[in-house]
Design goal:
With about 270 residues, the protein is an alpha/beta fold. It contains six helices and 14 strands. The radius of gyration is 17 Å and the shape is globular.
Length: about 270
């Protein structure tokens, strides 16, 4: 198999240990690509969920093994814990199996642009909703993800491709659109204030590449609902990819998010 080669790959919100994790698609993506730098941008392990409801699928272990193998082959791997694997933040500055743990990072692109990389949950601070509304949102998220998992299991049995149904639902809810828009503005404003060309994050399960008055807001998405990753080419160009039975290019750095475009077959 010929792997697609990238300079850097950014993956977040895998949620290993959660039933809704799309580990099979991620495993295929990791085995179909190679890179010099791999950033794991938080919520790779869902420690928070496993403490409540212990769950682990064999595919989840295969993902961990593949990441360790990627590090062993010489790729520089940086793990930035998020809010669901926050217990790992106490290991910042240490290395395990060739994987560096960090609270955040600065990525310098091949074109010289500087990006701050963090999970993104720090931008929730000071903007939190009432506790009851947060609990309601978490419950609704669980219902949406559960429905997404069951419907796609049915589609697979029918021989049909995966469909990220939850993003269509979220973007039809005004409150969800406002939350996403406000989050993007906070992240972009912070990048501008600290002199970065952009900010790469995850957290809200909504992959996006947008230019905010010259500063790039980049969200690499997730592997629970939408199966997306951010890749950097060797010329510094950034692309947001969707990876299931069908691989799509969802966005380009510096360009508005366009209609999904099918990726060319690997050479």
């Amino acid at each position: 198999m010929v792997r697609q080669r990238f300079r850097s790959i950014f993956v977040s919100d895998v949620h290993l240990g959660l039933r809704d994790c799309q580990a099979g698609y991620l495993l295929d993506f990791l085995r179909s690509t190679t890179c010099e730098r791999l950033y794991l941008v938080g919520d790779i392990l869902d420690i928070e969920n496993m403490q409540k409801t212990p769950y682990w699928h064999a595919r989840h272990g295969e993902v961990v093994a593949e990441i360790l193998a990627i590090a062993a082959r010489g790729t520089r791997v940086t793990y930035i814990p998020g809010n669901h694997d926050a217990a790992l933040r106490r290991f910042a500055g240490q290395r395990f199996g060739g994987i560096e743990v960090a609270l955040n990072a600065v990525h310098v692109g091949a074109d010289g642009r500087r990006y701050r990389v963090s999970h993104g949950d720090e931008f929730d601070s000071g903007h939190s909703a009432p506790a009851w509304l947060v609990r309601l949102g978490d419950a609704l998220q669980g219902v949406v993800c559960g429905a997404n998992r069951r419907i796609n299991a049915l589609l697979r049995r029918l021989g049909l491709r995966y469909r990220p149904l939850s993003i269509a639902l979220k973007l039809r809810i005004a409150a969800a659109r406002r939350f996403i828009g406000d989050f993007q503005q906070r992240v972009a404003s912070d990048a501008r204030a600290h002199g970065f060309d952009g900010h790469i994050c995850g957290h809200i399960h909504c992959g996006r590449i947008e230019d905010h008055a010259g500063v790039l807001y980049i969200n690499d998405g997730d592997w629970v609902e939408h199966c997306t990753a951010l890749v950097e080419h060797h010329d510094g160009a950034l692309e947001l990819l969707h990876w299931t039975e069908r691989q799509l290019r969802l966005g380009l750095a510096g360009a508005a998010l366009a209609e999904p475009e099918a990726l060319p077959a690997a050479a």
